[in-house]
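Re-running the complex after MR caught last week's input typo. The corrected sequence lines follow. Everything else is unchanged.
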Amino acid sequence: MKMQEIIKVLEAEVLYGSDTSIEIEAACGSDMMSDALAFVKHNGMLLTGLVNPQAIRTAEMLDMLCICFVRGKKPTEAMLDLAQECGVMVISTAHRMFTACGLLYEAGLRGGND
Amino acid sequence: MGAVKQRYEVPSDDFTRAGEASGKVKALLKQLGFNPDVIRRVSIAMYEAEINMVIHANGGHAEVTVSPDKIELLLQDTGPGIADIEQAMQEGYSTAPDDVRALGFGAGMGLPNIKKYTDDMHIESQLGVGTKIYMTVCAKSSMNPS
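Corrected-run output:
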């Protein structure tokens, strides 16, 4: 799914990154980073309610293309600097985790195992 | 290419900086032209071990030896040690306190993830002395994302 569609579906605000033509192939939703780290997918994105630098680091280690903060949470400037350093797009949606994941699933994005 | 050896300190008192050493190793391996899958496996395994060090052991250091055919990592701390390594290797088992869970860790997946992403790992630990985790990722092996 194109990033531009994901942004539209989640009614998300883009906080870092401008290339909305990138293709996301799978998504993972978790507030526990080690659960996310068990998930290796090509061109993935992470949805999380965890707002600390380790969320960005986790996306970096997994080569994820995007991280989406749910429930309208916003990262700090230091986290956005880290995202820039790691090349990870950052968006934020007002939807809660369950709803955000459901909206993306309904729109056709999958977890990578189905 | 001969072996490249690097040493990284893992700070004890700053959770926000945990992962910096793994980020540097990732950048080094990219610079050396390793396969992205190999780089990702090394990065995840080292990151998990680095986080463990910060959570449980007040930091430590990492020694990374990069050869053309494999990447070897040793993460060493002088923390409390692991009482039961077999139990610690089980998915979901964690001794992390609630404040660590609030930071997104302590799901009991750290050591199982390290095992999953490496070709070889072993742990030496002594209570009250510290822990050493040895990890090897072969440059030729790969793990296909599911």
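None of the earlier attempt is carried over here. The CA atoms of residues 77 and 83 of chain A lie 10 Å apart. The interface with chain B takes residues 31-35, 37-38, 40-42, 48, 50, 52-55, 57-58, 60-63, 78, 86, 112-113 of chain A (CB under 8 Å).
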